[in-house]
Structures are given as structure tokens and as C-alpha cells.
Amino acid sequence: MLGQFKVTAIEQDKFELVREVIDPEALVRLVRAGQDGAIVTFDGFVRNESHGRETSYLEYEAYESMALGKMKEIAAQMHEKFAIHRVAIVHRLGRLEIGETSVFIAVSAPHRGAAFDACRYAIDTLKRTVPIWKKEYFADGAVWAEGELPPTPPSAKSAS
Amino acid sequence: MPSIRVKVLFFGRLRELTGLAEEMGELPEGATLAQVFERYAERYPRLAGFRNSMVVSRNQEFAAWDTRVSAGDEIAFLPPVSGG
Q1: Residue among A6, A83, A3, A78 at smallest CA distance from A37
Q2: Distance from C-alpha of A142 to C-alpha of B83, rounded to nearest angstrom
Q3: pLDDT(A159) > 70
């Protein structure tokens, strides 16, 4: 089954880590093409509270070269698993205020089902595997968000 | 034993805790990633408590702790990720 649905390759996709405001409309335009019938987007933005505490702002940092590599891997997996056309994944770094977009994902496809499934897969996998960290600032201090431990490969003894 | 040079990176709370974002480290040839970590945990004792709530990467791929390092490797100690 794998690869059977591949519509286009990853070359037309976009992966970016930015320090400026993300422009969702530009990303939607980028993934939209005549052969598509659907675009699904995910807009992740800064919530005004965390575990009942009022958030002042967030700061994101990344292991940038590895994060871009992992974002590209996610897109490659999306093309393998779902009948999609183009993918754009952009994550913002630095200080973000309440309501500002931290991550935006756009997926185009000939049909909506694949676009929905692929977009969900993208954000879920990003949150688990891309080396990006969020620090939450409150009126009376700051904490690193709990986060998830990425899955690690098995012991190296069986590998090279 | 001959020694090799590798680049070592810390991120998030691990960077804050060590006050170290990046340095070139000298290690005995054949050292494992676990041994690299132990060296830093000796230098920064508070690191030791994070051993079970972090992962390590070698050349920008998540790696098992018993992976051996080679000269020129880029090793990073990574807390649980929280992007999105």
C-alpha cells in the first residue's frame, strides 16, 4: 500500500522556523493547486492560561537544524501514508504573545479525507518528535512546558 | 587511549541548568553517549536527575544511549519536546 497514493513529492513542500509573525494565508496559497479539491489547516496559537495559571507570554527555542530535518521527515511520511498534494509546516521561535500563531500547517489534497488525516498526523507527530521547546512565563515566574519524550531507537548493539 | 573531539549541545532546561549551549568536548575514543552524559553529570551534578527524562541525539538523529561516538560527531542532550 505504501507509496501507492503518492500524488507529488516533497520538493514542493515548505518547512520553516521563523521569528516573525506567521502569514497563514500565504501558506494556504502555496499549497493550493488546480488538481486539489481540499486544503486542511492547523493553526496552533498561544493560549492565555496553562493549568489554571494566567500566561503572560511564551518563548520557543529549537535545535534548528534537527527540527527542520524532522519536519521534513514528517512530510515524507505524510506523502507515504496519505493521498495528499502539498504540505507546509511553519513553526515560530522566540517570544510569542497570547493569541499569536506558534505553528501553522497546511495540507492540500484532491479529496478532503486525506487532507484531514494528514494534517492531524502532522501536528501530532510534530509535538512528539520535533526538537522544539516552550517556556511559559507567568506573572510570578516561568516554567518549561512538560513536553513529551520522543521515541528513541533500540539499543545500538544490533545496529552499526 | 586516543581521544576524539565532538560537538556537544544542550537545550531547554538542560541548557539553563548547565549554563552551556554548546562546546567542543574531548572524549576517549569508543565512548558511548551514556558515558558522555556521565562526564557532564560529574561537572554539573544537577544534570544526573534528568537522565530518565531526556533523550540524546547523535548527528541530529535520536540515538540509543549505548551508541558509540566518533570524531566530529554532533551530540545533543534534549529534554522532552514541547513544540506546537
Answers
A1: A83
A2: 16
A3: no
CA nearest A136 in B: which residue?
Answer: B82
Q: Give the residue carrying C-alpha cell 515524507.
A: A76
d(CA A138, CA B80): 21
Q: Which residue has the higher pLDDT, B42 or A5?
A: B42
**Cα–Cα distance for residue pair B82/A147, rounded to 1 Å:** 4
Q: What does pTM read for this prediction?
A: 0.93
Contacts of A56 (CB under 8 A, 6+ apart): A137, A138, A139
The rounded radius of gyration (Å) of the Cα atoms in chain A is: 17
Q: Are strands B3-10 and B74-78 parallel, antiparallel or unpaired?
A: parallel
Cβ–Cβ < 8 Å for A89, A75: yes
Is A124 within 8 Å of chain B by CB? no
Q: What amino acid occupies position A155?
A: S
